[in-house]
Amino acid sequence: ECYVQNTAREYAKIYAAEAEPLEGFGEVPEIIPIFLVHRPANNIPYATVEEELIGEFVKYSVRDGKEVNFLRRDSEAGQKCCTFQHWVYEKTNGSLLVTDLQGVGMKLTDVGIATLAKGYKGFKGNCSISFIEQFRALHQCNKYCEMLGLKSLRSTHQKQRKPTSTKSKTLPNSPTIKKTVPKKAREPRDFISSEH
Questions:
Q1: pLDDT tens, 153-172?
Q2: CA pair distance 162, 147, nearest whole angstrom
Q3: Distance, CA of 90 to CA of 70 (rounded, Å)
Q4: Exposed, middle or buried by CB within 10 Å (0-12, 13-18, 19+), for 97?
Q5: Where is the composition biased (Polar residues) (predicted)?
Q6: Where is average pLDDT lowest: 49-58, 124-133, 173-182?
Q7: Prediction pTM value
Q8: Domain count, the chain
């Protein structure tokens, strides 16, 4: 728990260093540190300690990305959390995602990290790889993504379609015109007519 949150905290510091100088960006989310305490005389010898957050506790993103959260979408803190996720995703070439962002205002705690199956630079997260796939499919860029110059995930996550095998058919009364029809067309736009 400490390792995951403090790793995410380091990414948040780098994100802040890039975002804060941008005109109009403003305050950035901060992941608070968490510490492991050894208490040998106690029945539970280990505990974690972190700053107490006072105020309304909000989940800006959930681990599996399925929950629609209006505070995430509409609030400044929520949008900046989504941008932070996008930034980390892009910086790690889609290999790591900080998720389960929650807290009070811009102070976040109890975050999760998803990595590809093999991990990222020796680090394995505590969330399923499916969270990365869901984020890639569901993330909607906002003005903060644009301010940081992040690439839209809509164009980068769409799978490259494999060329389908085609059959050439000669149309009646026209030996020079052929119509190319994909073997299996999924949408009307997949039909392509060409002159040869």
A1: 876 544 443 444 444 444 44
A2: 34
A3: 24
A4: buried
A5: 165-177
A6: 173-182
A7: 0.73
A8: 1
Q: Which of 64, 74, 100, 190 is catalytic?
A: 100
CATH of the domain at 66: 3.20.200.10
Residue 181 within any structural domain of the chain: no
In a domain, 155, yes or no: no
Q: Is residue 188 part of a domain?
A: no
Full domain range(s) for residue 28? 1-148
Is the Cβ–Cβ distance between 35 and 50 less than 8 Å?
yes
> Residue 72 has what pLDDT?
59
Rounded CA separation 104/69 (Å): 15
List the one residue out of 53, 74, 79 whose CA is nearest residue 139: 79
pLDDT tens digits, 25-38: 999 999 999 999 99
In a domain, 184, yes or no: no
